[in-house]
Amino acid sequence: MVAIMRKPPFWMRWRRWRAAAAFVDALFKARIKAGLVDASAADQ
């Protein structure tokens, strides 16, 4: 029981991983959106 309490809880690590994944996903979406805008501007 002491060993389990010593480590950070699983849900804490899961929440941190989910936050990091959401941040990376938003970053890629913003980059793709910027790329699409650049492509449409180049077409005009």
From TrEMBL:
Q: What is this protein called?
A: Uncharacterized protein
Q: What is the organism field in this record? A: Bradyrhizobium elkanii
